[in-house]
Design goal:
The protein has about 475 residues and is an alpha/beta fold. The chain has a domain of about 210 residues: Rossmann fold (3-Layer(aba) Sandwich), CATH 3.40.50.1100. It contains 18 helices and 13 strands. The protein has a six-stranded mixed sheet, sandwiched between helices. The protein has a five-stranded parallel sheet with strand order 8-5-6-7-13, with helices on both faces. It has a two-stranded antiparallel sheet with strand order 1-2. Helix 3 packs across helix 4, helix 3 packs across helix 9 and helix 15 packs across helix 16. The longest helix has 19 residues. The structure holds pyridoxal-5'-phosphate (PLP).
């Protein structure tokens, strides 16, 4: 399988290189040159498979000979055995033909574990084969950092440095990062805000000379193709559990960087009958505004009760724009260069095509709380604020009651106790057993000034073979 850049100018790469690369050299994102396609008969034959067996069937065409079949099966068995539910991604029924797929049974209680648990293992496998080492450098305001750290904690060939804004992440989120043991895990609290952290990461990727040529940086944010790939699987899993592929499904997806919902779009292109995909955003609604009025325009960042969806631009949206433009990389490049300067639109027929593929909705904090409260009153089931946005959007956008509507449950409510309290539900969601002692565990992190030279010096000094 070859991968090409959405901006048309970077060289095509194989899976291993795509795994180790962040952005393409032309500033684009990598996508598969062509997608595997499965027939209904093939998909039907996957009924009754375990999650990891299904994951093998869906993902092996993308990975190809980078990981031989037997090794890949073993890796997937390990990856999904760390989840705390036998079904890995269990479905919970909310109402007639309405479901939540719980994607928060992994080590850090958010859906990002599905991809990052695999990504850590894939990286280590490929690096072992190539006798190489990488430094993962990332900035986090919440879920990505902890999922990446958990995913890489056992990697022999990876050191991971995660920057978070000092005293500006929630205590649960900080502790999920700073209490993980491992010589290769380095938490840096920067005396600055999230944007400062992100800027340092971006600049470091642009100029890696501080590493002295002895190792290289690797990215774990959702521009990494392997993350998208791992997220395709659970769309097949949900469909098969509810009578697919002989009936179609609808999915509602709480969306920030457009990674998770893009995976659903790919599942559909790969042959899974999906009749509706709902983009559910919070007040940071650039995608909803684009879908409603064909205007792609950055607004100020708003802080909401669903912080993991607080974004100004959606990086993975570029991957959809590439398809909407008939895979014309230069058209995408021009469009996104213009989008950095001001609002942009696309040709009407392309936009109409996008509207056929997706519905969308934006849900504010009040409606988020109302939904948490309503579902609790109806079912004694607690939603986290991100999932609540998905459920609300699903209900607002629903087209056909006969089609099962599945909202992706992206986080465990115990990660966001403040939103639950604000919704007026008086029960406090307990942390699952494997995390019950989170507040007693010892933390380890280094506080550094908001200064890139100091951060780079710290990294250069503390990776494994430094
Ligand atoms: C990351 C995240 C999202 C957004 O996912 P994208 O793939 O960026 O659209 C939604 N909910 C939670 C809980 C998350 O951690």
């Amino acid at each position: 399988m070859r991968y090409i850049s959405t901006r048309g100018e970077a060289p095509a790469l194989g899976f291993e290189d795509v795994l180790l690369t962040g952005l393409a050299t032309d500033g684009g994102l990598y996508v598969p040159e062509s997608l595997p396609h499965f027939t209904l008969e093939e998909i039907r034959s996957w009924r009754g498979l375990s999650y990891s067996e299904l994951a093998f069937n869906v993902m092996h065409p993308f990975v190809d000979d980078a990981v031989p079949a037997d090794d890949f099966r073993k890796m997937l068995d390990e990856t999904y055995s760390v989840f705390s539910h036998k079904a890995v991604a269990p479905l919970v029924q909310l109402d007639t033909n309405e479901w939540v797929m719980e994607l928060f049974r992994g080590p850090t209680l958010a859906f990002k574990d599905f991809a990052l648990q695999l990504l850590g293992r894939l990286l280590d496998y490929v690096l072992e084969k190539r006798k190489q080492h990488v430094v993962i450098m990332g900035a986090t305001s919440g879920d990505t950092g902890s999922a990446a750290i958990e995913g890489c904690r056992r990697c022999e060939h990876v050191d991971i440095f995660i920057l978070h804004p000092y005293q500006r992440v929630s205590e649960v989120q900080r502790r999920q990062m700073t209490t993980v043991r491992g010589e290769n895990i380095h938490n840096i609290a920067v005396r600055g805000n999230f944007d400062d952290c992100q800027r340092m990461v971006k600049e470091s990727f642009g100029n890696q000379s501080f590493l002295g040529g002895k190792t290289q940086l690797a990215a774990v944010n959702s521009i990494n193709w392997a993350r998208i790939m791992a997220q395709i699987v659970y769309y097949f899993h949900a469909s098969l559990a509810l009578g697919g592929p002989d009936r179609s499904m609808a999915f509602s997806v709480p969306t920030g960087n457009f990674g998770d919902i893009f995976a659903g779009y790919l599942a559909k292109k790969m042959g899974l009958p999906i009749s509706q995909l709902v983009i559910a955003t919070n007040r940071n609604d650039i995608l909803h505004r684009f879908m409603s009025g064909n205007k792609y325009e950055q607004h100020q960042l708003e802080h909401t009760l669903s912080p993991s969806m607080d974004i100004m631009v959606s990086s993975n949206f570029e991957r959809l724009l590439f398809d909407l433009h008939g895979r014309d990389g230069l058209a995408v490049k021009t469009l996104l260069e213009n989008a950095a300067k001001g609002p942009v639109s696309i040709e009407d027929y392309r936009w109409k095509h996008a509207r056929k593929l997706f519905d969308s909705d934006a849900v504010d904090d009040k409606a988020t709380c109302d939904t948490i409260r309503e579902i609790y009153q109806q079912n004694e089931y607690l939603l986290d604020p991100h999932t609540a946005i998905g459920v609300r959007a699903a209900r607002n956008c629903r087209r056909d009651q006969a089609v099962p509507m599945i909202t992706l449950g992206t986080a465990h409510p115990a990660k966001f106790p403040d939103a639950v309290a604000e919704s007026g539900v008086s029960v406090k969601p307990p942390l699952p057993a494997h995390m019950a002692d989170l507040f007693e565990r010892e933390e380890r992190y280094t506080v550094l000034d908001n200064n890139i030279a100091g951060v780079q010096e710290f990294i250069a000094k503390h990776w494994k073979n430094a």
